[in-house]
Task: inverse folding
């Protein structure tokens, strides 16, 4: 991942020296990163100031930038997702093509039945689980490695800034958005698989978060541009999944980090629900077109 060079005027978090930030504690004026931000009545406070005020009538509850709970291990969900992908990858290696055919993203195709009585399989035939299960499938080690590297690099900072529940919503909805756009635009008889849609969703969310925190946008935009060039230059890549995940990631993250503080939770729930509803309606319309 491209290195982010220090900029004049940007300090480093007093607890996490590898994190640049433009936010300071409203009590002690120390620079704090998203992991250390505790929401206060005005601005954000650092964990030390919050602990120092523990004897007050009502102590502030630590919250992330997006309103999630601050936890000890900010990367636990990322590690769980990595482990899930690794377990499924090993299962695919053990079972071969059978598991890919059963769980991969497939729009509408026959599985070898006769001309008079074809056996149809795919999302349009009611196998909706393929939209999500395909996002945990990998066959080639390079495909698995690149996607997991992206998850390892992008996951923890986003999980720290958003909170666990919001990060899970971002990841899964981005994965579903990638599968949905593939269902709409890709060859319905072609199997596709991989976590790329979810990873591109993390790319989009990282760009939104960088903008929200006023970080240097150039490193993430450059890395995203390189990945998009590879996406369209390599014919074996399902570009539809990448674009679908990217767009969903930008939309969801915008709703999570830019929601007004007093209406934050309702706005965040509404944005995620609207994205999910849009994906559902799109899939229903496409399925009806294919089987109608």
Result:
């Amino acid at each position: 991942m491209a290195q982010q060079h220090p900029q004049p005027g940007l300090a480093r978090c007093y607890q996490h020296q590898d994190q640049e930030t433009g936010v300071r504690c409203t009590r002690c004026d120390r620079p704090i990163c998203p992991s250390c931000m505790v929401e206060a009545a005005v601005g954000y406070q650092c964990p030390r100031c919050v602990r120092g005020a523990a004897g007050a009538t009502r102590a502030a509850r630590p919250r992330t930038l997006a309103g999630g709970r601050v936890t000890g291990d900010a990367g636990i969900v990322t590690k769980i997702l990595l482990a899930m992908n690794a377990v499924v990858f090993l299962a695919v290696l053990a079972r071969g093509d059978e598991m890919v055919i059963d769980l991969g993203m497939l729009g509408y195709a026959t599985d070898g039945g006769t001309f008079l009585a074809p056996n149809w399989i795919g999302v349009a035939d009611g196998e909706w689980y393929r939209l999500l299960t395909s996002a945990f499938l990998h066959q080639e080690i390079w495909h698995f490695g690149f996607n997991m590297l992206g998850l390892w690099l992008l996951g923890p900072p986003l999980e720290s800034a958003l909170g666990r529940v919001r990060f899970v919503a971002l990841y899964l909805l981005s994965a579903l958005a990638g599968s949905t756009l593939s269902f709409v635009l890709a060859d319905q008889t072609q199997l596709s698989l991989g976590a790329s849609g979810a990873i591109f969703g993390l790319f989009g969310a990282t760009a939104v978060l960088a903008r929200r925190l006023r970080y240097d946008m150039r490193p993430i935009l450059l890395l995203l541009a390189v990945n998009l060039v590879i996406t369209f230059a390599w014919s074996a890549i399902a570009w539809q999944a990448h674009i679908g995940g990217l767009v969903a990631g930008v939309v969801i993250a915008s709703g999570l980090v830019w929601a007004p503080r007093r209406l934050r939770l309702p706005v965040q729930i509404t944005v995620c629900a609207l994205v999910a509803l849009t994906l559902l309606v799109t899939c229903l319309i496409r399925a009806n077109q294919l089987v109608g």
Remarks:
- The CA atoms of residues 156 and 218 lie 20 Å apart.
